[in-house]
Amino acid sequence: MFKKLIEAKTHQRLSGADRKKLKRTIRDRFPNASETDIDILIPPKVEITVAKYPNRVLVYGIENDVPIFFDVDGRGSQIFPSVYALWKVPELLPAFVLKGGEVSHYIIGGADLMYPGISIPPEGLPSHSVGESWAVKVPGNQAPIAVGTTTMSSSEAVKAGLRGKALKICHYYHDLLWESAEKCYVPNAGFLDDLVLEDPSLSSGCDGAYSFEGEASIMEESGANNDTGVVADAKDDHVSNSNIGENDLNEQVIADVQDLKLTEDGDQSNVDSEQRLILSVEDVDTLLDKCLLQALHTTVKDKDLPMPGSTLWSSHVLPCRPEGITLDIKKSSYKKLSKWLQSKSSTGLISVKEDKHKKETTLVAVNRKHADYASFKPEKRKAEKIEQVINQTANEGQVILEVEEIFKPSVHVNPIFASVGAETGKLFSASEATDIVFQYIEKENLVKPTNKSIVVLDAILCDALFKGTVKKGATYPTEIHKKDLGSTFVNRMQAHHRVTRGTESAVRKGGLKTIQILTERRQGNKKVTKFSGFESFLIHADALASELQKKFACSTSVAELPGKKGHEVLVQGGVIDDLAKHLVQQYGIPKKYIEVFDKTKR
């Protein structure tokens, strides 16, 4: 079941009522569980989360810890404990004991359990019915390695000569549900040693504790069957040995691809010189900072923000490294891209925000008045000069469009701006607004002496950041991390946007609305394409209709939008794709601001 990656639809905390309902379900489904066992699995003062998937599967877990139960049908009738839960309470389910460690290779490879692989005790096969939940253990070890449902009763199994499938495995050690844990719980040394002795493959990378950060995108279609018998576990062994999270894999792949391009493009002498050059950890840290500042000066523009951390790394930071040098984040003192970005955010150079669902850090703003930014002198490179010439040639005959997100001080943050002497009626970029709040912090000396990355909140700053957001009866925060300060402060301001086309410019309140292009059929099975929203990008309806009439050699017309402000242009024919390309190439409108709807496809 947990072999194919499927993105969860929602992640949320359980309410008090749902928490009690989950406990009742566990009592009904697992009569062997005592109240103490249930409190171990669902600690009273710990938040429980539930992830909902498109195939109706629900995964319950301890927040920032491990998954404890999964519900196959989403109704509570087929709820199973994870191996983490069984490691905490081994007697929660009855268990089949394998004949030997060699059988466990097949189980952790994804195969179902067959009766010939079960160790039958002297008193005979344990009594069971069809559809019961059972665990799987290796001999001499109380830590289960898998859980599933019985496919036939014990009496039917005896009649069949103890042949056939005994247990349909739903979840096993080292599948994707196991890997989704943010903080892996591992049995104590006594549990683990027996498991390792029986099956050496299970000990890969384990020295008493695991730390595995994984994506919570782990569900296979619940109706999928797994009757293949034996599944090769070489891939699983590789995953268990790696002991790194998905973010690390992404960063490593990005770095490897960049290095591969250098090897392909360069000659062998460049490769050899690169291999001979070994940088220390301090040198890598210094080079990282230099490449980031180079990128912030040359290629990272405010209009491109927010920007995913992986994009910043691959498209901006890596191209700024010196020729013939390999830049690997893992060889720095930070080890991870997210930790490096958060470190730079704590200094006030940039503002970042972490997406807990996608497990990615996003660059939100750049403080271009920061001392490090102001004192850095970017290098002019050949590639940049060539790119400038290419862009200049490509933009000939095209009016450049610029879209910028700007913010106006609200009543919440006005005292901060007034305190540093900034105008409250002016519009600021995200980086400028971040610089304002850091000026206030410096003026009031609010940095925590024992931890320079923490800001102590005074009354004015606390109200600016959190007034009206804290529930009645709850306490206000007393401090905030620098990496969260910029994004929190900007979110309390009024969002605006500025659109500039040539000499024409307009500032409007709120977010920028998208252009909508729609193709539908009219009488006589004829297609018509109509689109609206272009006026937000300073494009005039009549001029555009005349241009498209010549471009596509068809009739066009302009009509007012019913019940709304603005106009829509109608073009005869199904030119939805060509029209979208024309807006991108001729007007420079980013693709993310164009929505396409084709109603002619059935």
TrEMBL record:
- Keyword Protein biosynthesis among record annotations: yes
Gene3D superfamilies from the xrefs? Answer: 3.10.400.20, SUI1-like domain
GO BP field: formation of translation preinitiation complex
Protein name per Swiss-Prot or TrEMBL:
Eukaryotic translation initiation factor 2D
Give the matching Pfam families.
Answer: Pre-PUA (PF17832), PUA_elF2D (PF26292), SUI1 (PF01253), SWIB_eIF2D (PF26291), WHD_eIF2D (PF25304)
Lineage at the top is: Eukaryota, Viridiplantae, Streptophyta, Embryophyta, Tracheophyta
Does the keyword section mention Protein biosynthesis? Answer: yes
Recorded superkingdom: Eukaryota
